[in-house]
Design a protein that fits this description.
49% of the residues lie in helices and 16% in strands. The strands form two sheets. It has a six-stranded mixed sheet, with helices on both faces. It has a four-stranded mixed sheet with strand order 4-6-8-9. The chain is globular, with a radius of gyration of 19 Å. It starts with 9 loop residues before the first strand and ends in a 9-residue tail after the last helix.
Amino acid sequence: MTAERKGPEVLAARDGALLTLTLNRPHRLNAVNLPLYEKLVAELEAAEADGGIRCVIVTGSGRAFCAGADLKAHAETPMTEEERDRYVRTAQRANHMIQTMGTPVVAAVNGHAVGAGLELALSADFAIVAEEAKLRLPEIALGTFLGGGVVYTLAERVGVLKARELVYLGDFFPGAEAARMGLVNRALPADEVLPAARELAARLARRAPIPLAEAKRLIGPAGNLSREQALERERAALEEIFRTDDWAEGVAAFREGRAPDYRGR
């Protein structure tokens, strides 16, 4: 039996306002386990608390983005009921953080994304995927169930009919097809995925962070609101933003014909 290689389950690398989080279990195709989820949650929480980080990139080490749950480990060492509960709640916490943190998140899906891996990618604000990457939601075919909010993130992207097809049947599909159906933003050759994600993240990092966080809070979830409720939330956000230094900076920069310098306050 091959010994489990130890190391940080998630690598964090900061470059100015950008933070790259790399899932780091390449010997298991970055299959998720509890330590990986716990480390990911900790890094996301730290990023959200750091006003200097303006965008987060999530990617995978080696040839996969994330092959899903580590079923081999589950089979070798079955979890107790308490451990299963902690695993599920931490997994959902990681996805919920990506979905709801004010900082935008870009998924650089450099290779295969299956099950829990695709859940993480769908939680991000943007997803750039390798054209030949194999994607799949196999949970029902394996006798288990979805997590990470797929019951809404998937339908938001491709509609209810296509979501049912992808979930009920659980077939593989390539990254290029994911882009055609609107599941991800772009599909590129594998070696172009991370550079494209970094370019996109750099653009996002230059945007005013307070209104960007408000847009993230409202776009998507606002689809469940009435028109009146959505307009009311927009009004409240706009009035709050009018009181920020960044709003004044944006107006001044426009008047002076220069790039704005947003500070997040």
